[in-house]
Structures are given as structure tokens and as C-alpha cells.
């Protein structure tokens, strides 16, 4: 397996031992790079810290003393740790670089790197690009925010094997030299304000994906997103747009019936099984990347005619007495839920709620043309209720948890309805992750 070579740092602090921290620590250990671990979980409950401690690695657990920075010339932090954390603040004062583990992964990559980000659609697009390259026989690797820790995955990379990597704003905020050969900018809207504290910081973090790119690299971008297009005007990088709003002779576009690339017909949209106009954007972005890597139309047609999406993203669960249940647990912000609502043209019973991310829910209620009723739960439920009152929506019911919300939605539905879990909130008030939340929903639906 690959290790770090000619690594320019003498002592590293691994801050946080979640999946990415564990992978970073193992890589540093295997690469003979001196490092120290600092993790919030107490040592007697921390199996990962105990493991590295047995290997002779210094571990500090249960608290975050500033002394862990002594002699450190690089901090590798868990992406979820905010930049106002006391260790991060002190490291910045000391001019110690702060990165996430994707920076370590980048140091080992030998071959094409395709990196995807955006407020919504990252996982679907990343997975679809992976499937297209795989079907074309290019043996890609799948890594990043999609659940496969990048610094672990790329250790197995063969020479010139493509790496397809999903990246969040949390990961991108802390990079130094990271530079993809192909970047994909799907969209940028207001999100994660509890972490970034301002829209400007969030946008800046997303744009870090193209920060180091040159005119030898390519950015595939959403030509319909004004925030994205404005930021690309003066960037010295090759640009390829995708658009669903008008037909274009360059890049990937849609004429109302078919997908084209550089004025060449690729596929009729009737044969694309992935639902929703927002998913059409993801498809166009994926087609643009595939064509850049010389994937034939026949291969694209084969994949798009069978690719139904990813778990927790508008995932069909079950037809129960004429009610169609969909799991969209990955919709952790209002825009994602808005796009989910726009994917259906029949009555919807919507389940929303979870951890309040600092958003105003007024925009959500403006999209309720097909929503028959709505069930809210969790920390954000009171704020959702207040927005419903402002918009004079009287079909809202508030319950305490997702299980009760699912049962209540079923009770309120009639035959022909869509029952949609699309929370518009993070999961962390009651769940470890959006995956746990979606799995709970699926389990409850099957038991109804």
C-alpha cells in the first residue's frame, strides 16, 4: 500500500479520531511520520486511541489542551471540527497549516483526480461519474465525502487509475496544495451557516476546489448558477458548462427532450431513469466529465438507462396501500428539499425537521404547491411551525421524533399520495448521520 514520500512536515497533530482521523493516523504511522493524536472522547471509551497508544503513539484524550501543539508544524483535523475550535484558533496564531485528510490523499495520487462539490447533488453526481468510467473500463476509485475516506482509498491506487472524489465545504475549507485535474462545481447556495458563520466563507470554501487549478486543468460548472459563473470569470482554467435552461453547442445541454454534448446527440431523456430536473443537472455534469475522458455514447446510454440514484437521495422505499414512500434523508438544507418537492407532480405528505442549521424556512413553504400536509419533528420543529403560521399553511403537525412523524404522515395520507422524508435539516439532534436517519425511516415504513 502507498505511503507518504518526501513529506515536508516533522510533527503532525491529528485532531479528531473519527473515520478520517483514524485513516490519517494510520497513514502517518505507516509512513514513519511523527505525530500526536488529540480526541474529545475519554481514553477508557476510545478504542481507536487505545489502538494507537499501543503502537507507541502519544494520545491526548478527553479534552483539548493547547500543549498538544508543541513542536507541531501541521494539523490534520476532522472536517466536522469548526475553525473556531480553540486548537484551530491557536494553530492559526502560530501560522501552523491546517488541513483535512484529503490533503494527505492528494500527496499520494498518481493519476487523474476528478473532484466534485456543490451544495446539492454531490453524491449522485460522484456516483454517476464513477459508474460511467467503470462501465467504460477505466477502473476508477471512489473516495471522499461519499463515505470512502480518501487517504485510505488512494493508498490502493494503481498507476494512472482515476480517482473520483466527493468533497464537502468542510473538507475544502482546509486545503493547501490540493488540485484536481477535473473539478465539478454543481451549484452554490446558502448552507451550513452554523459551521461557516457567513455565506461568504461558505462560498469561498466551495471555490477552493478550483483555487490551485491552472489552464492545464478543467472545471465543469453549472452555467445556470449565477454564483458559480460570476466566480469563474477571471479564473485561468479550462471551462466547460452544463445547462438545462438553454441549448448550447458547447458543453452539455438539454433541448427539452434530449441531452447533447458539444452539439452531438447523446441520449433521449425518456431513457434516463433518474427522476427530477435537479437530477438532470447532475446527469449533464456527469456526461460532460465522461466525454472529457472519451467515454462513448453507447456506454453513457447504458449507464443512464439503469442508474436509479443513491441511497437516501430520493430513494423509493415502498408502495403501501397506494402510498409511495421516498427516502430523501440526504436533503439537509432547504434547497435540497425544494428540489425534491419539484420532482413530483402529485400530492405530497412531507416529513421535515432535525437540527436547525440557522436557515429561515420561509423559502420552503413557498414551494408547497403540491404539499397536502406536513409533519415536523426535532429541534427545528418550532421554527418550522412559526414559518407555517406566517404562510398560513394549516396542514402542519408537530411530533417529537421521526418514528412518530412517519406514522403520522401515513395516517394523514390517502391513496395516490407521495410520503416524502426530505428533512431540510441536519440529522444530529437525534441521529449520528443522515444515513442513520434514512435507515430508521425505511425500517419504520416497512413495519407500518
UniProtKB/TrEMBL annotation:
Any one GO MF term held by the record is: UDP-N-acetylmuramoylalanine-D-glutamate ligase activity
* Annotated signal sequence range: none
> Which InterPro entries does UniProt cross-reference here?
Mur-like_cat_sf, Mur_ligase_C, Mur_ligase_C_dom_sf, Mur_ligase_cen, MurD
Pfam families named among the record's database cross-references: Mur_ligase_C (PF02875), Mur_ligase_M (PF08245), MurD-like_N (PF21799)
Q: Where is the Mur ligase central domain?
A: 116-290
Q: Which reaction does it catalyse?
A: UDP-N-acetyl-alpha-D-muramoyl-L-alanine + D-glutamate + ATP = UDP-N-acetyl-alpha-D-muramoyl-L-alanyl-D-glutamate + ADP + phosphate + H(+)
Places the protein is found: Cytoplasm
Q: Does the keyword Acetylation apply?
A: no
Entry EC number(s): 6.3.2.9
Q: In which pathway does it act?
A: Cell wall biogenesis; peptidoglycan biosynthesis
List keywords of the entry alphabetically. Answer: ATP-binding, Cell cycle, Cell division, Cell shape, Cell wall biogenesis/degradation, Cytoplasm, Ligase, Nucleotide-binding, Peptidoglycan synthesis
- Broadest EC class? ligase
The entry assigns this protein to a family as follows:
Belongs to the MurCDEF family.
Q: What does this protein do?
A: Cell wall formation. Catalyzes the addition of glutamate to the nucleotide precursor UDP-N-acetylmuramoyl-L-alanine (UMA).
**Identification of the protein by name:** UDP-N-acetylmuramoylalanine--D-glutamate ligase
* Gene behind the chain: murD
Amino acid at each position: 500500500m502507498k505511503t507518504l514520500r518526501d513529506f515536508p512536515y516533522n510533527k503532525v497533530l491529528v485532531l479528531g479520531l473519527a473515520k478520517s482521523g483514524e485513516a490519517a493516523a494510520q497513514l502517518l504511522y505507516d509512513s514513519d511520520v511523527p505525530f500526536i493524536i488529540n480526541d474529545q472522547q475519554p481514553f477508557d471509551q476510545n478504542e481507536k486511541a487505545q489502538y494507537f497508544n499501543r503502537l507507541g503513539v502519544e494520545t491526548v484524550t478527553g479534552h483539548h489542551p493547547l500543549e498538544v501543539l508543541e513542536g507541531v508544524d501541521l494539523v490534520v483535523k476532522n472536517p466536522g471540527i469548526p475553525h473556531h475550535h480553540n486548537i484551530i484558533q491557536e494553530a492559526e496564531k502560530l501560522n501552523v497549516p491546517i488541513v483535512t485528510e484529503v490533503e494527505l490523499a492528494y500527496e499520494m495520487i498518481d493519476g487523474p483526480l476528478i473532484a466534485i462539490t456543490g451544495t446539492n447533488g454531490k453524491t449522485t453526481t460522484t456516483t454517476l461519474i464513477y459508474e460511467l468510467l467503470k462501465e467504460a473500463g477505466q477502473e476508477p476509485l471512489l473516495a471522499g465525502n461519499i463515505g470512502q475516506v480518501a487517504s485510505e482509498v488512494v493508498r490502493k491506487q494503481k498507476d494512472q487509475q482515476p480517482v473520483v472524489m466527493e468533497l464537502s465545504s468542510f473538507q475544502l475549507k482546509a486545503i493547501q496544495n490540493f488540485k484536481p485535474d477535473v473539478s465539478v462545481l454543481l451549484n452554490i447556495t446558502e448552507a451550513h451557516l452554523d459551521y461557516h458563520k457567513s455565506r461568504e466563507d461558505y462560498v469561498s470554501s466551495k471555490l477552493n476546489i478550483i483555487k490551485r487549478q491552472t489552464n492545464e486543468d478543467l472545471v465543469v460548472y453549472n452555467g445556470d448558477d449565477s454564483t458559480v459563473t460570476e466566480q469563474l470569470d477571471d479564473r485561468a482554467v479550462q471551462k466547460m458548462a452544463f445547462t438545462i435552461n438553454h441549448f448550447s453547442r458547447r458543453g452539455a445541454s438539454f433541448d427539452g427532450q434530449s441531452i447533447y454534448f458539444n452539439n452531438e446527440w447523446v441520449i433521449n431523456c425518456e431513457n434516463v431513469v433518474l427522476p427530477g430536473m435537479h437530477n438532470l443537472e447532475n446527469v449533464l455534469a456527469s456526461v460532460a466529465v465522461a466525454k472529457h475522458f472519451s467515454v462513448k455514447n453507447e456506454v453513457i446510454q447504458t449507464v443512464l438507462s439503469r442508474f436509479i440514484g443513491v441511497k437516501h437521495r430520493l430513494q423509493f422505499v415502498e408502495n403501501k396501500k397506494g402510498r409511495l414512500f421516498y427516502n430523501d434523508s440526504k436533503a439537509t438544507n432547504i434547497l435540497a428539499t425544494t428540489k425534491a418537492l419539484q420532482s413530483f407532480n402529485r400530492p405530497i405528505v412531507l416529513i421535515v425537521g432535525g437540527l436547525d442549521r440557522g436557515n429561515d424556512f420561509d423559502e420552503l413553504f413557498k414551494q408547497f404547491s403540491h404539499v397536502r400536509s406536513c409533519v415536523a419533528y426535532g429541534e427545528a420543529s418550532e421554527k418550522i411551525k412559526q414559518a407555517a403560521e406566517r404562510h398560513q399553511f394549516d396542514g402542519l403537525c408537530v411530533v417529537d421524533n421521526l418514528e412518530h412523524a412517519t406514522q403520522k404522515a401515513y395516517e394523514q395520507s390517502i391513496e395516490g399520495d407521495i410520503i416524502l422524508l426530505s428533512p431540510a435539516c441536519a440529522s444530529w439532534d437525534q441521529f449520528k448521520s443522515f444515513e442513520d436517519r434514512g435507515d430508521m425511516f425505511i425500517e419504520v415504513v416497512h413495519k407500518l
